[in-house]
Amino acid sequence: MKKFFYIILIPILAVVFTGCRETHTSKPLKIAISKAIPEDKYQNYYRWIHSVDSTIICFDLYYLNMDSALKTLEYCDGLLLTGGPDIHPQKFGKERDTARCQDIDLKRDSLEFALLAKAMNLKMPVQGVCRGLQVINVYFGGSLTIDIPSDLGSLVGHQLPDTYEYYHEVNVLPNSALFKLSGSEIGTVNSNHHQGIESLAPLLTGMAKTKDGLIEAIGLRDTVDKSYLLAVQWHPERLDYSNPLSGPVIKRFIEAVRTYSNSGK
Questions:
Q1: Pick the catalytic residue: 112, 198, 216, 237?
Q2: Measured in whole angstroms, how far is the alpha carbon of residue 207 from the centre of its chain?
Q3: What confidence score (pLDDT) does residue 161 get?
């Protein structure tokens, strides 16, 4: 019943908000989320967003068909690509390694790549979290390490069984956009991912790394007349918001969303 409610409600709300972009300067911001229900862990994304602005309206696009999801995105002001299962290796030329993946969701792969393409075309702000970072890297032509423990070693534990709360340090690159918004060169983050960036897409720049060399934050290399885009490999929505790699990340995204909304694009 809950899923049915979201499927019906989201397109209706999208229609209601058509035209709001130009006529109501105090209108609530609208953020599209690639997947945010039904699991309890996804509710953290709502809380993270609403910690900045409780009036923001969130649209979960996962249970819509592709056409409805893309249409709903047009009425939003930002896109959040959330965490989740592995990306199918066929997306980055490693189809023969499929058996080494943990979980795969082909529908989600298709949806998120299409949403990202649409957001880039609209020059809409994009925030990626965990899997979202990996989707962005692959979309722009990068590749992923299939199984970090086997392929990269165990110098840093990126995922432990039966817990979402494993922590490790990241080194934030000086002068990067992430450093400018966080003010931190070293931070402690939570980690729960099986894949990670192997080769960084040429159009992207790395902003943070772990001791084993894994890139854990990315953005566009050329930001002139482009979408705001930032993605992190950790889960800032589950960290204490006072952590400089959590609260400031969502605040900066919401700033970009508000600027986009006010621009009338």
A1: 237
A2: 15
A3: 58
Q: Residue 3 and residue 218: Cα distance in Å, rounded?
A: 33
- Give the CA angle between residues 17, 71, 4 to the nearest 5°: 80
> In the chain, what are the domain boundaries?
2-19+27-263
Q: Going by CATH, does the domain composed of 2-19+27-263 fall within 3.30.2020.10?
A: no
Residue 121 has pLDDT above 70, yes or no: yes
Whole-angstrom distance, CA of residue 150 vs CA of residue 47: 35
Select which of 88, 130, 168, 198 is catalytic: 130
235 assigned to active site:
yes
The predicted model gives 206-233 an average pLDDT of: 94
Catalytic residue among 88, 158, 168, 235: 235
The more confident residue out of 2 and 151 is: 151
- Concatenated DSSP letters of 1-13: -HHHHHHHHHHHH
pTM over 0.85: yes
Quick check: is 130 catalytic?
A: yes
pLDDT over 70, % of the chain = 80
CB 158, CB 181: distance < 8 Å:
no
Q: Say whether pLDDT at 165 is over 90.
A: no
- Cα(150)–Cα(158) distance, rounded to whole angstroms? 12
